[in-house]
Structure formats: structure tokens, C-alpha cells
Amino acid sequence: MGNFLDSPGFLGTTATFRSDASLILILIAAVLFTIGWQLAVHKRYDSHRWVQTTAVSLNAIIVLSAMIRPFVIYILPGIPAKLLEGSYGITTVHALVGMAAALFGVFVVLRGNQLVPRALRFKDYRRYMRLSYALYMLATVLGAIVYVVVFIIGI
User: Fold this and answer.
1) Residue closest to 125 by CA, chosen among 136, 110, 142
2) How far apart are CA 112 and CA 114, in angstroms?
3) How far, in Å, CA of 146 to CA of 53, rounded?
4) Which of 14, 43, 131, 155 is buried deepest, with most CB atoms within 10 A?
């Protein structure tokens, strides 16, 4: 299975199948986040909760299965010495924003599904959901930039 995932991708770039699939799945998660946001705007809160839970779960699976390992293998050893070279800087910023988005998003979803202790529950839920959405969208844009820089421009 590893050989298949590391075979050439399907988007016509120098990316592997794993990278192409990750990009597409993350974009699907971003669409789901936006659909969930619109469901909340239209006061369809039960549907909103399910869509957001699905999007956060999909995002977590992609991050855990396809993003952490390449960062640790290819980028982390070059930090801080190569931070201003090639794709090291933008990839590191993406990783930091993405980590914050993923951790905070998981917490917000756990809170939304009433799976955190009462002491950790916050009152202004809307503010936290908006922050979580903004972080996810920023991480998605940064991830797309990393894809372009690494697999299209070739830096």
C-alpha cells in the first residue's frame, strides 16, 4: 500500500498520489466546513453539528495519516537552519497554523458534542466556532500554497 501511495499523483504535478489525495480530501473538508457554517447561519444546528464533526474527523485522519510524517522527515530536520530556504518557511507556518486549527477544532467539536467536562465548556460558543473556522480556512490556503510551491513551482 505504501508503494501505491508514493506512486506518481493524478493531478499532473510532481506530487505523489498521497499528496494529491491529501489536497483533494482537505479541500473537501474545507467545503464541508463551509456547508456547516451555512447550516448554522440558517439555524439548522443539528445538521451543522454533524457536518462539522465529519469535517473535523476527515481533517484529523488526513493530518495524522499523510501530513505529520513528511513534515517530520523532510522539514523538521532543517529547522531552524534552513527556515528561510525553499519551502521550509511556508511549510513550517502551515504546520503551526494547521496544528492549532486541528487541536482547537477537535476541542470545539468535542465541546459541541458535549464530550468535555463542564469546567472546560465555554459560554460564547459562536466566537470559538468562528475562530476555529478561520484557522481551518487559513491552514487550507497555506496548505494549497505549500502544494503549489513544492509540486508545481518546485522550490
Assistant:
1) 110
2) 5
3) 26
4) 131
Euclidean distance between CA atoms 70 and 148, whole angstroms: 16
Which stretches within 113-151 are classed as H helix?
125-147
The answer to whether 117 and 86 have CB atoms below 8 angstroms apart is no
* Assessment of whether the complete model's pTM goes beyond 0.70: yes
73 Cβ contact list (under 8 Å, min separation 6)? none
Per-residue pLDDT of the chain (155 residues; tens, 9 = 90+): 568 888 999 999 999 999 999 999 999 999 999 999 999 999 999 999 999 999 999 999 999 999 999 999 999 999 999 999 989 999 999 999 999 999 999 999 999 899 989 888 888 888 999 999 999 999 999 999 999 999 999 98
